[in-house]
Design brief:
Pfam family, one: OppC_N
Family: Belongs to the binding-protein-dependent transport system permease family.
CATH superfamily: MetI-like
Keywords: Cell membrane, Membrane, Transmembrane, Transmembrane helix, Transport
Protein name: ABC transporter permease
Shape: elongated
Membrane topology: Multi-pass membrane protein
Strand content: under 5%
CATH topology: MetI-like fold
Length: about 300
């Protein structure tokens, strides 16, 4: 048996893998999330049409209902919008933008938060006080307002001509800089518990520096709660992006995310073109629900008291 096979068998036979296999909700949620991620990753291959290729659009095919409704066409499964863009293809491409923003902003927030929590919890004193007061200020405002403020500041710094091209980066920074506080407070509390344990004292005795202790000894022991928090925050990040795009300060119509598609479709909801907004909204709900259910399972699986 090769080393790789042994490692795969060890992972498959672990307690977490066993818990995952026994949870139908976790398996179903993971399957839904995996299908969405694969569809977004291979969007040019799996989408029936390219919704951004003007040569493929025909205004004669605009506002077509879903294929199973009278007047629908089989090559437009979920219908078309007012610009004759295939709704299914638009959702697949929009899903790609939403997932990029979600994963990138969670990574940014986790990086800043974990680093701040490690430094504050390990060093204590003035450094810890400054970091926690900044966190307290951010927590005193609703996250969406903080994201709107950061978004507005970044857009004010950039020239008007660069807003469309930098919209993705601005969204990632806005959401990431809003959500790092939760990671910082979680890691800080765990670090303050770990720093007084005997293995840390042993590392100090062996001459290991503060940076080495934080990265090699404390960080691996505080990653469990961080993984759970990151999984749950992924759904929140996707919802925040959708909210910002729905408010008109997110992705432009030329690079629509799920939130942008909902914002565009909402204008035609009461004119009878319900499919333009219903299907993107259902996709967003399914994405967030699957992520949250996975986060709930992971929180229980990593809790030794619940095993």
């Amino acid at each position: 048996m090769s080393v790789l096979t042994q490692k795969l068998y060890t992972v498959w036979d672990s307690d977490i893998a066993y818990s995952f296999r026994k949870s139908r909700v976790a398996v179903f949620s993971a399957t839904v999330l995996a299908l969405m991620m694969l569809s977004a990753l291979f969007a040019p291959l799996v989408s029936p049409h390219d919704p951004f290729d003007i040569a493929q659009l025909s205004l004669f095919d605009s506002e077509l209902p879903p294929a199973w409704v009278d007047g629908g066409q089989s090559n437009y499964l979920l219908g078309t919008d007012t610009q004759a863009r295939d709704v299914l293809s638009s959702i697949i491409y929009g899903l790609r933008i939403s997932l990029i923003v979600g994963f990138s902003s969670v990574f940014l927030a986790a990086f800043i938060g974990v680093l701040s929590g490690l430094i504050g919890g390990f060093l204590g004193g003035f450094v810890d006080a400054v970091l926690m007061r900044i966190a307290d200020v951010l927590l005193s405002f609703p996250p969406i307002l903080v994201a709107l403020m950061i978004n507005g500041i970044l857009r004010g710094i950039l020239p008007q001509s660069a807003h469309a091209d930098s919209a993705l980066l601005v969204l990632i920074l806005s959401i990431g800089l809003t959500n790092w506080v939760q990671y910082a407070r979680t890691v800080r509390g765990s670090t303050m518990v770990e720093r007084s344990k005997e293995y840390i004292e042993a590392a100090r005795t062996l001459g290991t520096g503060s940076g080495g202790i934080m990265l090699r000894h404390i960080l691996p022991n505080v990653m469990g709660p961080v993984l759970v928090l990151a999984t749950i925050n992924l759904g929140m990040a996707v919802l925040t992006e959708a909210t910002l795009s729905f408010l008109g300060v997110g992705m432009p119509a030329t690079q629509p995310s799920l939130g942008t598609l909902i914002q565009i479709g909402n204008e035609y909801l009461f004119s009878g073109i319900w499919w333009v907004v219903i299907f993107p909204a259902a996709t967003l709900a399914a994405l967030v629900l699957s992520v949250n259910l996975l986060g709930d399972w992971l929180r229980d699986a990593l809790n030794p008291k619940l095993r």
